Amino acid sequence: MWTGDSVSLGPLYKKAEIDILAAEYISTVKTLSPDQRVEHLQKIQSAYSKCKEYSDDKVQLAMQTYEMVDKHIRRLDADLARFEADLKDKMEGSDFESSGGRGLKKGRGQKEKRGSRGRGRRTSEEDTPKKKKHKGGSEFTDTILSVHPSDVLDMPVDPNEPTYCLCHQVSYGEMIGCDNPDCPIEWFHFACVDLTTKPKGKWFCPRCVQERRKKK
User: Fold this and answer.
1) Is 3 exposed, middle or buried (0-12, 13-18, 19+ CB in 10 A)?
2) Per the domain annotation, does 141 fall within a domain?
3) pLDDT tens by residue, 24-79
4) Is a pLDDT exceeding 60 seen at residue 155?
5) What is the CA radius of gyration of the chain?
6) Binding site annotation covers 165?
């Protein structure tokens, strides 16, 4: 295995070596015997082969780097989609609790006002920070939720970006990964597999489900 320095500098050294061998061959070709010509040409060919080997290693490293970055991007997309779904669930739950608890807070406040003024003041002082905190939280979540998967579709698409899912499109919006480690597609858009939320437990794509049924 080649190191990063040898892969990056190897082709330069070999190219310089090829230039030197070619210049020597051209300048001395008339004085060389047939065997010497063959030997000299073999040296040039060997240098070319080595240079090609270095170049192939560079291409392989570039592909591995691209796949690694793409894997992390897909994982980040999945985490962001999961975060957005959890955030929506929490916001819906907090809205339900706040709307359902208004009557209780009002009744409790009236009861405490009848008992003593001091206790009524403490209740109002305790409620105030909670309202501010909820207001600030809603502003933050509104900002987060303002980014929709449809906005991703409007972004320019890299023609070299790999495609996924049954629709053979690039990654966007909410996606789910198949739990089959040998799945050829790996990632799927929610809409393409009839999902609105991430299912609990393991999930297998339609193709892998059919394959598992055939094996049984």
Assistant:
1) exposed
2) no
3) 889 988 898 999 999 989 998 888 888 888 887 888 788 888 888 888 898 898 88
4) no
5) 33
6) yes
Q: Residue 186 CB: number of other CB atoms within 10 A?
A: 17
3-state secondary structure the chain: CCCHHHHHHHHHHHHHHHHHHHHHHHHHCCCCCHHHHHHHHHHHHHHHHHHHHHHHHHHHHHHHHHHHHHHHHHHHHHHHHHHHHHHHHHHHHHHHHHHHCHHHHHHHHHHHHHHCHHHHHHHHHHHHHHHHHHHHHHHHHHHHHCCCHHHHHCCCCCCCCCCECCCCECCCCCEEECCCCCCCCCEEECHHHCCCCCCCCCCCCHHHHHHHHHHC
Q: What would the two tokens of residue 148 be?
A: 């929709």
Is 128 inside a domain boundary?
Answer: no
Tally of structural domains, the chain: 2
Residue 50 CB neighbour total at 10 angstroms: 16
51 marked among binding-site residues: no
192 is in an annotated binding site: yes
State the residue range of the domain holding 42. Answer: 4-65
